[in-house]
Amino acid sequence: MSSAPTKRHVPLLLGYKKSKAMVRGKDKKVSLNLTSMIDMFTILVVFLIKSYSAEGQIVTVSDALTLPESRSQLQIELNLDIVVTNDAIVVDGEPIVAVDEEVLREANPIPVLVERLSDHLEYTRLMRGNTDEEEMKVNIQGDVAVQAILLQRVMSSCAQAGYATQNLTVIKVLEGGDEE
Amino acid sequence: MAQPASGRSHRVRHAPELDLLPVMNLFCVIIPFLLLSASFLEISIIEMAPTEGISASGAGTTSLAQSEEQQLQPKVILTDESMFLSTVFRTNPISDVFMESRDGQMVPAYDLDVLSEALAGFRDELEEAFPSIPVRKITILTTDKVRYDNIVAVIDVCAEHGFDQPGLQVAAYSVIQRGIAAGGGGGAQ
């Protein structure tokens, strides 16, 4: 008893025409060699896993400055950011002081900066009820070419406003001097 | 068809091919994720000790050192011309400023290797003379125009020798010169 051909065995060739090249190649299956690409991807994945950071970057470094390099291993904390360049002093993204000859001539705290920092500290105190030691810290992002007098004025302004701990933000480098 | 004399079939056996497409798919998902969370620039901090305010005349170095540690703390003095190390024992010139190319421009720099040797020597002397007093504080006393990157480089060298609580003081050149001549480097003692 002959059974009717199943649907699976019926070749579906409607509208299908073999090209001459396929006929010449006798339907050879062309496969892409992925081994070299897998090799490359493996190297890439290993490199990316090495530079993977679960904590993320909590500080945005301004484009207007180049941070100095250091071998310090201290982890950065999320504090008030003060950016110091040869053009301006910026607190929390807001330009406060334009740096000119007069600013570089004196060595005392900068009154405008002290006022702005005091306001910020007062605001933090009002918002949180009290301020602990952690909130009395600032991160100073200074350009490599900033003069010592400007840095010292910013630091003494911070101290006068009540920010007892001042951290200098730097780019971490390895012992040999290579950036991490 | 006639078979070979051995009677064995000489059909070439191909090794089974590994299906790499799922691996490729996995990589295509992992790589963008890792690229997004990779940090190629790691940021750290240097914690500074509270600074002393100095007036324009350099006379405002208040709250002079009181504790034994503060009395023993060394001072690295950076001027526009040279570098000194002032300690409880003596004040020594370390090196003269030389010009160095950084990012395509010539900037003043200090010989940090010599400073490292001097600090190592001072650390040995300290441990011999005052073994019970741990000294970790150091003052970086500079003139107005010393570059920030030079200060950070000096702080790094100091930290290598255990002086990892740096403070920054700035004074006029004349004040520092007077201090060096007096053997203390000016500023707080």
Keywords:
heterodimer; A: 180 residues; alpha/beta; Nucleotidyltransferase, domain 5; 2 domains; six-stranded mixed β-sheet; elongated; B: 189 residues; five-stranded mixed β-sheet; two-stranded antiparallel ribbon
Short description:
The complex is a heterodimer of chains A (180) and B (189). Chain A has 180 residues and is α/β, with parallel strands linked by helices.
Mind sketching the topology for me?
The complex is a heterodimer of chains A (180) and B (189).
Chain A: H1 20-24, H2 35-50, E1 69-70, E2 74-75, E3 80-84, E4 88-91, E5 94-98, H3 101-105, H4 111-128, E6 137-142, H5 148-161, E7 165-172
Parallel strand pairs in A: 1-7, 3-6, 6-7
Antiparallel strand pairs in A: 3-4, 4-5
Chain B: H1 21-37, E1 43-48, H2 68-72, E2 75-78, E3 82-86, E4 91-96, E5 98-102, E6 105-109, H3 112-129, E7 137-142, H4 148-160, E8 165-170, H5 173-182
Helix pairs in contact in B: 3-4
Mind explaining what this structure looks like?
The complex is a heterodimer of chains A (180) and B (189). Chain A folds into 2 domains: 20-50, no CATH class; 69-172, Nucleotidyltransferase, domain 5 (2-Layer Sandwich), CATH 3.30.420. Helix content of chain A is 32%, strand content 18%. Chain A has 5 helices and 7 strands. A 6-stranded mixed beta sheet of chain A has the order 1-7-6-3-4-5, with helices on one face. In chain A, helix 4 runs parallel beside helix 5. Chain A is elongated. Chain B has a domain at 68-182: Nucleotidyltransferase, domain 5, CATH 3.30.420. Helix content of chain B is 33%, strand content 23%. Chain B has 5 helices and 8 strands. A 5-stranded mixed beta sheet of chain B has the order 4-3-2-7-8, sandwiched between helices. Chain B has a two-stranded antiparallel ribbon with strand order 5-6. In chain B, a hairpin with a 3-residue loop joins strand 2 (75-78) and strand 3. In chain B, helix 3 packs across helix 4. Strand 2 (74-75) of chain A pairs antiparallel with strand 1 (43-48) of chain B.
